[in-house]
Amino acid sequence: MANTGDFYATFFFSFFLLSTICMLHFSSAPHDPNQHALRRNSYRGVLWIFLQKSIFFFLIPCSAGFRLLLSGIEQSERRRRVLAAAAPTDAPTAADAIANAYVDKSSTWLLAGSTSILLVLIMVSRVLHHGFFEEFVYLDAKELRVRLLLWFMRLGCALAILGAPAIDAPAWGTLLYVWGLTCLCFAFHVVDIQTFSEHHREHIEAEVAERKESYARERAEAAIQNKPSDGGQGVLHSISQDQRLALEVAES
User: Fold this and answer.
1) Which spans in the chain are helix H?
2) How many domains would you assign to the chain?
3) Fewer C-beta within 10 Å: the chain N or C terminus?
4) Does the pLDDT value for residue 48 go beyond 50?
């Protein structure tokens, strides 16, 4: 089969591309639950939920693009066999022309467009975890330049994928181009995580400490409101250890 190599190369590059997108998506979510958008801010948490639905939605046309590329190779092979059987003398020339047929542009647009949108949505997802101010505002001038550079490099890779339909290459060549840009975007993503991990950790620690202090204050106020008329001696025996600690913190 003349197109066996093209078919399997396209299949494996499709698998590599989808795996890279999945790794990029899962690495954009923080490992510490205190850093997640659902815990840090209710509004950002709701936006993150809707963003996940959008990401899952665009995975469908991305996968459909893979299938259409593979179907195009299969159809090309069937046409090659028909030409070879109908005109044996011209079979080598016709077969070579069909076997080296380039990909359908509509399939390439579907794949490139959905992949580009997926990369942008994953970038926005990471911003929702950190917040706009922590991502861009609470940085000094040097750190801000580095972050903007990494952001524009990733955004440039995502937009450059839209140029895949203009490439005259077989299906596997187009996928190699898209996968290469996705890997480059993932590399910039990893550099961003390593560069600003300490910055985000400091903000999270301060935020968690403030959250615990607010929680202790609320528990102490609730304990004070339930304090009996004996000057507060009875409440220390009736409340739990956490409430007793919160009360002592509030009274001190």
Assistant:
1) 4-27, 37-40, 42-86, 91-99, 105-130, 132, 141-160, 171-225, 235-238, 241-251
2) 2
3) C
4) yes
